[in-house]
């Protein structure tokens, strides 16, 4: 598994540092290197989880060789999604580093360019995300596969994933600007809808399916992978939402309380608002969408714990993880999948 992760990292670096075919002179090359540098820096901090999940699906159905190109395509796509996500969420950091658009803003100032550095950073970040999306698609054309039918099926799933994630991102952004839903059950369902389309499928289920499809898995096989991947994807993102409030910024790469600052309508927020006292709900609502002090974060952490919302949220995660583990018993032996599932379960705050 370590060798595969290293091979994917090396290939990402190669893709981002090998001069693009449309660069034909030194002046253009200098600007191109400036353009790809923020993505290259951010890529070096990735854990390659999606590539590993793809490899797990590929391994389960005995695909030929190691799917390095396919894993690289997924990682390049993830960089694209992160570039756009951080602009939409106005996030300054990612993986403990400046977000891609913030790196461009810094470059704008260091080069004494005209205009507003923040505006330049956002626009350059959008273009970087588009560029990475294209690179991912090009890399997927080199994906390892059993036969032509397998590649066609996997390609369809891959491009469907990129489309669905854009829709999920829209749902997430739209939810932040929608009036708060005071019905807990309904608010949880709304949050799970966003979670499913923005992250649960693209983070876990679809990488598994792409890997399986490339290996030649049939419809029944892909169904088995889906029954593992979807609940595991829900558990993965629910855990991430906990880390957004309780996680150590040095570990998560983002500030504690970031989801509250961004006004994210998470399942954890819905549970907390449904279980906390009226005064504590008012405090939570007042915190949404604004910068938080350390004291604010501690107050929110207290409310989440004291209300019982944290324990209820943990129970939901446990249910999803149990469903994934039970479904995994129907899969062929796949050491990579076992290892990745174990690491995802251990992502505690």
Concise synopsis of the structure shown:
This protein has 349 residues and is an all-alpha fold. The protein is 75% helix and 1% strand. Strand 1 (93-94) and strand 2 form a beta hairpin.
Any overview of this molecule?
By secondary structure, the protein is mainly α. The protein is 75% helix and 1% strand. The protein contains 16 helices and 2 strands. A two-stranded antiparallel sheet has the order 1-2. Strand 1 (93-94) and strand 2 (97-98) form a beta hairpin. Helix 3 (49-60) packs antiparallel against helix 4 (68-88) and helix 4 (68-88) runs antiparallel to helix 6. The two termini are 25 Å apart.
Percent of residues in helices: over 70%
- What's the order of the H and E elements? HHHHEEHHHHHHHHHHHH
Distance between the termini: 25 Å
Largest sheet strand order: 1-2
Low-confidence stretches: none
């Amino acid at each position: 598994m370590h060798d595969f992760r290293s091979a994917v990292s090396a290939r990402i670096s190669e893709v981002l540092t090998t001069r693009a075919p449309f660069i034909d002179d030194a002046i253009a090359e200098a600007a191109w290197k400036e353009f790809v540098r923020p993505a290259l820096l951010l890529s070096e901090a990735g854990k390659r989880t999606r590539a590993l999940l793809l490899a797990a699906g590929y391994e389960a159905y005995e695909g030929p060789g190691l799917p390095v190109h396919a894993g690289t395509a997924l990682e390049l796509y993830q960089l694209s999604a992160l570039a756009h996500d951080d602009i939409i969420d106005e996030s300054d950091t990612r993986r403990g580093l400046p977000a891609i658009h913030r790196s461009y803003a810094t470059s704008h100032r260091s080069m004494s360019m005209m205009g507003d550095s923040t505006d330049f950073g956002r626009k350059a970040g959008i273009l970087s995300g588009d560029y990475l999306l294209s690179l991912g698609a090009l890399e997927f054309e080199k994906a390892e596969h059993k036969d032509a039918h397998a590649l066609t099926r996997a390609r369809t799933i891959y491009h469907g994933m990129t489309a669905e994630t854009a829709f999920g991102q829209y749902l997430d952004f739209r939810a932040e600007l929608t009036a708060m839903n005071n019905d807990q059950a309904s608010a949880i369902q709304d949050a799970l809808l966003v979670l499913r389309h923005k992250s649960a499928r693209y983070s876990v289920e679809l990488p598994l399916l792409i890997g399986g499809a490339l290996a030649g898995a049939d419809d029944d096989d892909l169904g088995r992978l889906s029954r593992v991947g979807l609940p595991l994807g829900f558990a993965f993102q629910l855990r991430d939402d906990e880390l957004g409030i309780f996680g150590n910024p040095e570990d998560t790469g983002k500030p504690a309380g970031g989801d509250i600052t961004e006004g994210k309508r998470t399942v954890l927020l819905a549970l907390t608002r449904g279980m906390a006292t009226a005064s504590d709900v008012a405090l939570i609502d007042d915190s949404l969408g604004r910068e938080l002090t350390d004291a604010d974060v501690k107050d929110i952490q207290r409310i989440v714990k004291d209300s019982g919302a944290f324990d209820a949220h943990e129970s939901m995660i446990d249910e999803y993880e149990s469903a994934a583990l039970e479904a995994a018993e129907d899969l062929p032996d796949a050491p990579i999948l076992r290892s990745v599932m174990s690491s995802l379960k251990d992502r505690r705050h």
